[in-house]
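Two folds, back to back.
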Amino acid sequence: MFNRLIFIVVLVLICQKGWAQPYVVGGKTRHRFAQLNLGIDQRFFHSTGSQSAQLNIFGQVEHKPLNPFTETRILIGGTHFWGHADFYIAIPILGLGGSGFKTEVETGAKYFPWSIAHKKLRPFVGAAWMPFMYQQGDGVALWRSGLPVQAGVAYYRNKHLIEMGVAYNLRNRFNYYISQSSAVETKTQALSFSLAYKYQLDVTLSAEKDWQSGRTKKITEVLDSLKRLNGFTLAIGPSSAFFLKPSAYINNKAPFADNHKSAQVFAEFGLGYYLHKPDVQVNLAYRSINSVIEAYGFKNELQRKALSFEVYKFIADYHGFVPFIGLAASLENLQVNETNASETFEKGVTTGSPGITFGWDIRPNRIQSWYLRTNLRYFPFLNMTMQDGLQISYNQLEFNFIQLVVFPERFF
C-alpha cells in the first residue's frame, strides 16, 4: 500500500501544472514533444488455449482450462514524438477470476503510424513487458515475464483519449511443479481485450512562448553567469527490479520453488547536486528491495538495501528528450531469510558493488524547477555465497519509470 501511495504522491505533484496538449496546431516544437496521460482500463483475458494440471485422488494428472480473468488497471504514460508513440505503465488495482493467474505492473510502448489528432481515429501497434504470477493451492507462486503484442485504435477529443485493443501474450507457457517432484506444462490465458480511458495533460506548453521569443535563452545565460543553475536536487518515484540471472543455490536446493524473478514495487529516494555547465548530475539514491518465493513448506526471502553514489552525464537533447549515462558505486546490505519445513536460516552481508546508470529526462528547457526522469540501473556482480558454497544471485536490472526531480532552490 505504501508503494502505491508513492505513485499517487508523484502524480499529484506532477499534475499541479497541467494544460491540454494540442497535437496539430503549433508544429513540432520541443514543448509539444511529450505529454503526460493518466487513465484507467478494463482488461479481459479469455480462457481459450489455457491449460492447468493437478493430481486427482488416484494420483493421476488431470488437465483443465483456466477460468476467464478480468482486471482494472491505473494507467500512467506519456505520448512522445508529437503523438506517434506512447510509453506507459499499467498498475493492476482489482482482479477477478483467473484460477491463480494475476498480472503485475506492465511496462509497454505503442506506435501510431499516423499521429494522434483531434477528432481522429488512429490505429496503433505495440508490445509490452508484463510480469505475471501463477499459483495452484499451496504450490509455488511462480513469476514469469510475459510479452504481449497488441493492436487497436484510439480516438482523441478535447483532452480525452479512448482506446480499444487486443493483445496476445507470446510467453504464456511454462513448467509448473504440482508437487516437489512432478512438473507439468501449464499455459495461462494468452488472449486479452481492453478498453481504456486516458486524460491528456501537458506540463511544458506554457514555456513555449518564452522559448520562441528568446527570453528563455537570455534568462538561462544570466542565471548561468551567476552560477544559479547549479544546485541540489530531490527525487522520488516508484521503481521495480528484475532478476536477470538464476541462483545456483535455489536450483540445487528447491527447483520446485522456481527462482526469484521480479521484486516487489518499491520507492526510490534521491538526493543530488546538478552542475549546469558540464550538464552532469551527482546523486545518492536509496532503495529497499524485497523478493519472496515459497512452495510446499519452503520459503526464501531476499532483502536488499542499497545506497548508491552515481555520476552521470547528459549526452544529447532531442527536442527536450535528454538521455544520460554514468557510473555508480553502491553500498549494499544483502539479507537472506529461509524456512524449510521446521528449519530456519538467516544470513546477511554488507558489500560494495560497481554499476551503471542510464535513462532520460523530459527537459524542454534548463531553468525549470522540476523535471520528469526515467532511470535504469544495473549491478552485475551482486551475489551471496551460501553455506553449501553455491551462490544466490542479486543480479538485477532496476527500472524507475517515472521520477519527479525537484530543484528546491529554483523555487525561490
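---
second:
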Amino acid sequence: MVVLVTVFVAPAPGLTQSPVAKIGFLGASGGAREKPLLEEFRRAFKELGYREGQNVVIEERYADGAFDRLPALAGELLASKPNLLLVAGAPAVLAAKNATSTVPIVMTNSADPVGIGLVASLARPGGNITGMSDFNDGVVTKRLALLKEMVPSMTRVAVLYNPSNPTNPGQLKLATEAARTLGLAVMALEARTPADVDRAFLTIQKERPGALFVIGDPALGTMRPKILELVRKHRVPSSFTGKERIENGGLFAYGPRFEDLYRRAAIYVDKVLKGAKPADLPIEQPNTFEFVLNLKTAKVLGLTVPRSIVLQADRVID
C-alpha cells in the first residue's frame, strides 16, 4: 500500500511570500527629471538580483510639480496593492504617509524628514517610513557662501522658494540667517506655478538683486527650464541645488549626488522586501556632494571666479 504524505512548507517572510514584488513609485516632480534617477535605482536593484517582469514590477506615477495631485496618485498606487512605495520628494512622502500607515514607504530624498514630521528621528524613524534624506538644509549655507565669493559686490540676494513644499520655509529661514552673517539682505520670492515665476522675475527686473538663490523643490525643479530662460534674459547669477541644465545658463549648482541617493534607496527596498521593518532602519544622509560650475555663464555675466573656487568644483563647464 502506498501512503501519500502532503508536506506544507510555510513561506518565508518578505519577498518570498510572492513570486513577484510590486513597487509603486511616486514622484513629486516630472518624469523628465525623475526617470534618469529612477534608472540609477533600477541598475542598483538589478545588481541585488531583481529582474523587472520576472520577480519585480515597478509602477510609476508623477505629479509634475502639482502637489495637489499627489494624494490621488498615491491612492492609485495603493489600489494596486504594492509591497511598498518608493517615493521622491518631501511633498510626495507626506502624501504617501497620509494615504497609508501600513504599506512600507522608502524615500529616495527628503530635505528634513524629522522637522516636517515624517519620522520620529533619523536613527529610529518609527512608523512605516525610512530611506534617504537629501539634507538640502545642510548645504544652504555652503551654497550662499559660494555665491557671495563669486559675486563679491552683491549686497542683496533673491531667494526663490515654494511655500507649498513643507521643507522650503525652513530652508528660507536658514538662507536668511546665513545671508545675515555674510552681510546680505534677502528678497524672498514665492513661486508655486509658472505664472508665479514670471511675477518673481518682474520683481527681480525691478529691484535688481545681486544674484538668485533657488531653493531645492520638485515643482521648481520641473520649472527649471523656464527659470533658466529668465535667468539668461535678465542676466542674473543663479545657484541651484541640482546640476540638471546648469549648461543652459545657471552659474553653479551645489548639492548631494542624487544618483547616489537613488542607488542607496535600492538597498532599503531590498531589505524591506526581505522582511525588515522601516521603523528599525535608520535614515541615511548624503555622503557625496557635487559642485558644478559654469564658467561660460560667468564670462557672459562679466564675473571673474576666483581660482580657489574653480579648484573646488567637481565639474567645470567652460
